[in-house]
């Protein structure tokens, strides 16, 4: 049977903006208050999706969330009409208000952790939405993420959906950004690597001191249990606390894997050698490529600036691998030189393709942040909601939809405009029809 890795990219929402909400994420803080362009952001994302589909890849789309989150503002005590809620929240609790406007669901690497069917005890594909507890603006996402995932993967025979982990820092979970799967073929049992930033229940263990570690070991273990993964097919690795303190807020900013390739920076992990030994032992006899980038070739600072590791490594239909990199990597001499060499090293990676995703990069999201990987067999792919898959028709429809509903400039002040709320709801209502999702948003359920 055929098997695929399908990338489900997040569609950028109509309120894409820069509010400096993510302490520990250098780009987010540096671009606070910059003017954003939601229309361009959505189109950059659609172009990347279409380009991958045109390369012969299976490409999916995950719908964005409703923002501003009026339901949350009401839960926090703002009352009156929607316009009054917006006005009072913007005036009296600006930071809370801005958090409730973030279109951060666009980074679907943080939507959920996914375990493909060959890895799980019941032979289904398992999904656990990430609780994203470390940042208030992101903690608004998991419930609607669950609704969207259920509407996208809507067949219980093939797909199992779990509730997100408890909303507490002890179980802080950032989803697939801290999870990589190594395998020989997508349809064969794989080795799931969970990378955590700290131990929640053991303060004696190493942890970063400057910036927060968003993911805990205990969260990773809970997900492995929920998904029915065997101990032999899981490796837990601690992220190096020093790189978290240098702005590596997710593991996918410093390492990425695909099939039998693990591409990582020398400083990415805390106990590198023992973790790699465990991977080698559990992966078995098959060929495995560890591609380690030395600090002397690319500094952690350059890795964070260019998102060298927030690249997608994809297996093309001819079975060679390509790297999907942001144009920032091409513009940085050290990183560009490294990538030019990489394709000549005799690893499965043979090609680099650059994409302009600057609107996302300014908030600390590269090509890999924009996608959730779901390995599927042919039958499972047939069971996916077909309107969530990218093709020529859906590309045209979604571009027309963006042109109709999205603004091309958004400042902090625009976010309090009740007209923007109405535009966004009209856009999302139409989108749920285009993607046949049903009523996934709170405003559709009132
Ligand atoms: N995987 C990439 C996630 C980027 C995301 N940025 C943000 O939420 C920035 C939002 C703002 O600052 O407006 C984060 O840090 O979780």
From TrEMBL:
Transmembrane segments: none annotated. Its EC number is 3.5.3.23. It is an enzyme of class 3 (hydrolase). Pathway: Amino-acid degradation; L-arginine degradation via AST pathway; L-glutamate and succinate from L-arginine: step 2/5. Keywords: Arginine metabolism, Hydrolase. One of its GO terms (molecular function) is N-succinylarginine dihydrolase activity. It catalyses: N(2)-succinyl-L-arginine + 2 H2O + 2 H(+) = N(2)-succinyl-L-ornithine + 2 NH4(+) + CO2. The keyword Lyase does not apply. InterPro entries: AstB_sf, SuccinylArg_d-Hdrlase_AstB. It comes from the Bacteria. Substrate binds at residues 19-28, 110, 137-138, 214, 252, 363. SUPFAM superfamilies: Pentein (SSF55909). The active site is at 174, 250, 369 (nucleophile). Catalyzes the hydrolysis of N(2)-succinylarginine into N(2)-succinylornithine, ammonia and CO(2). Homodimer. Belongs to the succinylarginine dihydrolase family. PANTHER family: N-SUCCINYLARGININE DIHYDROLASE. This is N-succinylarginine dihydrolase. The gene is astB.
């Amino acid at each position: 049977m055929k098997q695929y890795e399908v990338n489900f990219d997040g569609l950028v929402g109509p309120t894409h903006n820069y509010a400096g909400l993510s302490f520990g994420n250098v780009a987010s803080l540096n671009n606070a208050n910059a003017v954003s362009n939601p229309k361009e952001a959505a189109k950059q994302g659609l172009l990347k999706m279409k380009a991958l589909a045109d390369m012969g890849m299976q490409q999916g789309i995950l719908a964005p969330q409703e923002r501003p989150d009026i339901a949350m503002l009401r839960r926090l005590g703002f009352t009156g009409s929607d316009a009054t809620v917006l006005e009072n929240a913007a005036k009296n609790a600006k930071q809370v208000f801005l958090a409730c406007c973030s279109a951060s669901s666009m980074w679907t690497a943080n939507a959920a952790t996914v375990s493909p069917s060959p890895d799980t005890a019941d032979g289904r594909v398992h999904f656990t939405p990430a609780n994203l507890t470390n940042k208030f603006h992101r903690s608004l996402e998991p419930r609607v993420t669950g609704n969207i995932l259920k509407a996208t993967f809507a067949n219980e025979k093939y797909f199992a959906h779990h509730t997100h982990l408890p909303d507490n820092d002890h179980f802080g979970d950032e989803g697939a950004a801290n999870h990589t799967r190594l395998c020989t073929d997508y349809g064969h049992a794989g080795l799931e690597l969970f990378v955590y930033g700290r131990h929640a229940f053991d303060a004696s263990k190493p942890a970063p001191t400057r910036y927060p570690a968003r993911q805990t070991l205990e969260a990773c273990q809970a997900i492995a249990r929920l998904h029915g993964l065997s101990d032999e097919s899981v490796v837990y690795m601690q992220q190096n606390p020093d790189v978290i303190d240098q702005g590596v807020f997710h593991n996918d900013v410093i390492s990425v894997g695909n099939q039998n390739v693990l591409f990582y920076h020398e400083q990415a992990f805390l106990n590198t050698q023992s973790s790699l030994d465990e991977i080698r032992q559990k992966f078995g006899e098959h060929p495995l490529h560890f591609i380690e980038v030395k600090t002397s070739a690319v500094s952690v600072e350059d890795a964070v600036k260019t998102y060298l590791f927030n690249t997608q490594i994809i297996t093309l239909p001819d079975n060679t691998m390509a790297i999907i990199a942001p144009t920032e990597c091409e513009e940085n001499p050290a990183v560009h030189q490294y990538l030019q060499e990489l394709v000549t090293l005799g690893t499965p990676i043979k090609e680099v393709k650059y994409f302009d995703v600057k609107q996302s990069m300014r908030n600390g999201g590269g090509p890999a942040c924009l996608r959730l990987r779901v390995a599927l067999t042919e039958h499972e792919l047939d069971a996916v909601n077909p309107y969530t898959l990218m093709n020529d028709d859906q590309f045209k429809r979604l571009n027309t939809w963006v042109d109709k509903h999205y603004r091309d400039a958004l400042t902090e002040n625009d976010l309090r405009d009740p007209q923007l709320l109405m535009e966004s709801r009209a856009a999302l209502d139409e989108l749920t029809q285009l993607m046949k999702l049903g009523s996934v948003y709170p405003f559709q359920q009132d």
